[in-house]
Each structure stands twice: as structure tokens, then as C-alpha cells.
Amino acid sequence: MTRRPLVLGLTGSIGMGKSTVAAMFADAGVPVFDADAAVHRLQGPGGRLVAAIEAAFPGTTGAAGVDRPALSAAVLGDDSAMRRLEGIVHPAVAEDRAAFLAAHADAPLVVFDVPLLFETGGERGVDRVAVVSAAPAVQRARTLARPGMTPARLDAILARQLPDADKRARADVVIPTDVPLDVTRDAVRRVIACMVPSTGG
What we know:
The chain is of the alpha/beta class. Helices cover 50% and strands 14% of the residues. The chain is globular.
């Protein structure tokens, strides 16, 4: 039987520090598939989804690809528009993810970094789930420090995301980020040690 890597789904709500944790996995030598980066590539200049998105949401693309603020304005708060966009984006990201998995078939462990893992049913496509979490006050302060972020926009984003408590309840492991970086890094190392099989005889 062909062996394949153990697939760890890495997720967490906005402002929880997921990108930092994903980078720690990568620094430890674990291949990481970044779903957000795949979306940016597919929607960037010459990206293969630009024409389909323009057709579905006229005026949301240009020479630089998808105009993300314009697209966000077109879909945020509109469930029907969001489903239409997801119907364009998700299959293309799934193709990229399959190619990534094939390219790293010999790795003992790979990470799928997916912001909306639970919200899109993505947990069914992974073997284990790690949730990145921080205290609500820390999450809010981090997110509101981002350029262009407002309390109303943050609330609209959080309304689309499964509450952090629910994510933690459904996780196989929780990685804290409202602690010193070394503590978070140690948690990542422990996850890797638990999930990568020993090479001993």
C-alpha cells in the first residue's frame, strides 16, 4: 500500500497568529500548504480565476488581478454572493492542494494552513486538526492594528467564522499564541514529535 503523509489541518480565527505558527512548522522542515497564498496566486495578475471572478462580480478586477477590497465589498454580508465566490475559488484551491500533496508524498507530515477549515468542511480532508488560539482581547487588539481594519469590519468577519471556543473543542490540539514565542514554538515542536513516526528500528 502506498504511504502518504499524515495531513495536519492548521486553522484559527482572524488575528490568532496562525501565520506565525505556520512559519514555525515550515522552519522545522514540515511542508506547509498555504491556502491564502494559493488564493492570492489564483487571483493575482494573470491568475486563472480572474476572468471567472470578473464575470461573476463585474468591476472587481483590473490589471493587477482581483481588487480584493472591491471583491470583499461585493460579497461581505451577502451569503449568496459568498457562495458564488466560494464555488469559483474552492475547486481551484483543491487542485493546487492535491498537486502539493503529490509533490510531498514522501514527507511524513504536511500541514494544510486553511483559515476557514471548519467553516468549509475541510476537516474531513485532513487527519488531525490544530487550532491556533489566543485570548479574545489579544485577538481583537492584533486585528484592529491591521491597516484598514475597523471594529465593524472585524465583527462582520468574525460573524462568518466559527467561534474560537467551538474550534478549540473540535481540535485535536490547541496551539496558544498569547504566550511568549518560545512557548508557542515548543508547542509546535511537541505536535511534530507526536505526529511524525519514529524512524527507530
